[in-house]
Write a structure and sequence with these properties.
By secondary structure, the chain is mainly alpha-helical. The chain has 2 domains: 290 residues, no CATH class; 96 residues. A two-stranded antiparallel ribbon has the order 1-2. The longest helix has 33 residues. The mean pLDDT is 90. The chain binds zinc ion (2 copies). The site of one zinc ion (ZN) has 7 residues, from helix 2 and helix 4.
Length: 395
């Protein structure tokens, strides 16, 4: 891009200054502070005491503000995938504000448009505009005027959400920056440390500033990496992907292919072995009555999506692999290929039947589900065999 074309008039100055400023301070002032503190003699007047408390606060704030976004802004407010009592709502609204990602109302409005228009021009963090744009660029620049907010009428009727929306910057500054400093000061005074002001400063820098940047980058990864890295077992109609690695950075939101396919499910990592701490907390809170009406997509519908996708992949891969086999081996493989095609068709038929059963809410027997799982495994081993044969013939 030529410099004269740089869209200076489209820069979001306040957001850009905050995002870039906090990131730069975290990369410069925070390490410098840690280094000078590390090298100070134990009896120095400006030595910070109570590092255990400071790091414990960092961990608490990391999870509290992270869940504020994933459990609160995302699964509760944007998708209404469960209902929550007011203490849960208040907690996620306070700590969500402290993650400095705007109000729950604005966040949800953007996110609902993202789901409705994923990968299209209207998508606020459209991945087809590149990694940088989807990650943070969409916040730094406003490419076109923001459309009027019309898709969060339900949230506008919630007084707690509207209270947070009105005072979000004040709540964020108080809970996210002032509180860690005040808690540091209080702890140091209680313990009788020489200079509580230094513990307060450390609380602000580590649990306030550094934590804000780490959590923000985690959330931004959902919009960028989750649309780039990983597998698409439930649908290849959109760019969203499932990645266990990204789930580790994002409190379980990395299973994004499933999430885009079934956005009203409170689970993102739907398989029992997948890392989804947000799901675990929502479920645990439901056991003590703080959350309720957890929405789950029936297993048969999930299986139908998997079968359909596997059938598609199988069909596509057979043709491309078969084209690579030479004439002699092709004859030998003809039977395998025919069988694979038949299996792909069978998978598609089963997917349709299951979908039908799910829409009419008919019971699907456990044996049928086991049989389907068997078919899926069979398809996977067929694919593996074909891929090996393809690699052999290419060599
Ligand atoms: Zn997405
Ligand atoms: Zn979502």
């Amino acid at each position: 891009m030529k410099f004269k074309n740089f869209p200076i008039y489209r820069i979001e100055w306040v957001t850009s200054t905050f995002l870039i400023g906090t990131a730069l301070l975290s990369l410069t002032v925070v390490p410098w502070f840690l280094w000078t503190q590390f090298n100070l003699p134990a009896d120095a007047a400006n030595k910070v005491h109570g590092w255990g408390f400071i790091w414990a606060m960092f961990v608490f704030y990391y999870y509290a503000t992270g869940f504020g976004i994933t459990l609160g802004y995302h699964r509760l407010f944007s998708h209404i995938s469960f209902k929550a009592k007011w203490p849960v709502k208040l907690f996620v609204l306070l700590f969500g504000a402290a993650s400095f990602e705007n109000s729950a109302l604005d966040w949800s409005a953007d996110h609902r448009i993202h789901h409705k228009h994923v990968d299209e021009d209207e998508d606020p963090y459209d991945i087809s505009k590149g990694f940088f744009y989807a990650h943070i660029g969409w916040l730094l620049f406003r490419l076109k005027p923001k459309p009027p907010v019309t898709n969060v009428k339900d949230l506008e009727a919630d007084p707690l959400v509207m209270w947070q929306h009105r005072y979000v910057q004040w709540i964020g500054a108080f809970v996210g920056f002032v509180m860690p400093a005040a808690l540091g000061y209080g702890y140091a005074s209680f313990m009788g440390y020489a200079n509580p002001g230094m513990t307060a400063l450390a609380g602000f820098l580590i649990a306030g500033l550094l934590r804000t940047v780490v959590v923000q980058q985690g959330t931004f990864c959902i919009n960028s990496l989750c649309h780039m890295i990983g597998r698409r077992p439930y649908s290849t109609d959109h760019s969203a992907r499932d990645s266990g690695v990204v789930a580790l950075l994002t409190f379980g939101e990395g299973y994004h292919n499933y999430h885009h396919e079934f956005q009203h499910d409170y689970r993102n990592g739907v398989k029992p072995w997948q890392f989804d701490p947000t799901k675990w907390i929502i479920w645990t809170l439901s056991k003590v009555g703080l959350t309720q009406d957890l929405r789950r997509v029936p297993d048969s519908r999930i299986m139908a999506a998997e079968l359909k996708e596997q059938s598609r992949t199988l069909g596509r891969d057979i043709d491309s692999l078969a084209a690579r086999l030479d004439v002699r081996t092709r004859e030998l493989k003809a039977r395998t290929i025919a069988a694979a095609h038949e299996l792909a068709a069978e998978l598609a038929r089963r997917a349709e039947a299951l979908k039908e059963a799910a829409t009419t809410k008919a019971e699907v027997a456990q044996e049928t589900m086991v049989e389907m799982r068997g078919l899926l495994n069979q398809a996977a081993s067929h694919l593996e065999a074909l891929r090996r044969a393809g690699a052999g013939s290419a060599a």
